[in-house]
Amino acid sequence: MKNFPRISRIPRPDLRAVVDRAPQAEAFAASWIERVRPYFMELYVLRRRIATVAVVVVTALLFVHVMFGANGMVVYKRKRAELQNLRQQIVQVQQDNDRYSRQVDGLKNDKTAVEKEAREQMGYARPGEVVYVPPAATKTAPPANHTAKK
Predict the structure, then answer these.
(1) CB 110 within 8 A of CB 117
(2) What is the full DSSP assignment across 102-127?
(3) Arithmetic mean of pLDDT, 124-149
(4) Which of 8, 62, 111, 139 sits at 20 to 30 Å (Cα–Cα) from 18?
């Protein structure tokens, strides 16, 4: 005990005092058993109903967890719809990419395509040609209305 100065030794109870109080402890235990026995008997009779109710409650909790939990069916359906949406976006982007690739290949290999783009986007013309550009539409101001606003 010299190595552990903080730990004190728990005193042992006097054996004679324990033996002297044994009949009182037995009487207390017997009275407690007689008071509790009707409740345990009723629980014994209702054990099947209690077990059935417990199984139903556990099943209901498990159902709620499966349907609405972190990885439940509601989340699963939402993720599945998101996956379908992303797949559609992938198909659309691939189609756009294919279209742009064809357009780039056309501009690299076809001189008429290059000429068409130069005429449309940059307003280029061949020598001797005249390019007609329609005037830009102008917005007209609304007429001034001097009536009071309500």
Answers:
(1) no
(2) HHHHHHHH-HHHHHHHHHHHH----T
(3) 76
(4) 8
Tell me if the pTM is above 0.85. no
Structural domain includes residue 59: yes
Residues counted in the chain: 150
Compute the half-sphere exposure of residue 98: CA atoms within 13 Å on the CB side of its CA: 6
Are 66 and 72 contacting, i.e. CB atoms less than 8 angstroms apart? yes
Distance (Å, whole) CA 46 – CA 52 = 10
What is the domain extent for residue 109? Answer: 46-122
Would you say residue 96 lies in a domain?
yes
- Residues 20-56: tens digit of each pLDDT: 888 898 999 999 999 999 998 998 889 999 999 999 9
C-alpha span between 150 and 148 (Å, rounded): 6
Within-domain flag for 70:
yes
CA 15 to chain CA mean position, Å? 64
- Within-domain flag for 27: no
